[in-house]
Amino acid sequence: MSDNLSRPLTWRQVIYKSQQMHSLFATTLTFAWFAIVWILGSALRHSRLMRRLFHKDG
């Protein structure tokens, strides 16, 4: 047990860690992409609404 603990990371652990980090990065990237799309969509809706209001005022 102590020998296994003192041993450096095995390839299996390294691959598992890298896969974990990759999935975390992919999840973060996907969430950021959806957030950007949602913000842009809401901004376009807001600008359209403002244009309508300005046209009504004009």
N-to-C terminal Cα separation, in Å? 80 Å
- Tally of strands: 0
Helix content: over 70%
Principal-axes shape call? rod-shaped
Please report the number of helical segments. 2
Summed over residues and divided by their number, the pLDDT gives a mean of: 85
Uncertain stretches of 5 or more adjacent residues: none
What is the N-to-C order of secondary-structure elements (H for helix, E for strand)? HH
Task: Determine the strand fraction and express it as a percent band.
Answer: under 5%
Biggest sheet architecture: none
Summarize the structure in words:
There is one protein chain. The N and C termini lie far apart (80 Å). The model has no long low-confidence stretch (mean pLDDT 85). 0% of the residues are buried. With 58 residues, the protein is mainly alpha-helical. The protein is built from two helices and no strands.
Concise synopsis of the structure shown:
The chain is 90% helix and 0% strand. It has helices at 2-6, 11-57. The longest helix has 47 residues, at 11-57.
Label this structure with key terms.
mainly alpha; 2 helices; 58 residues
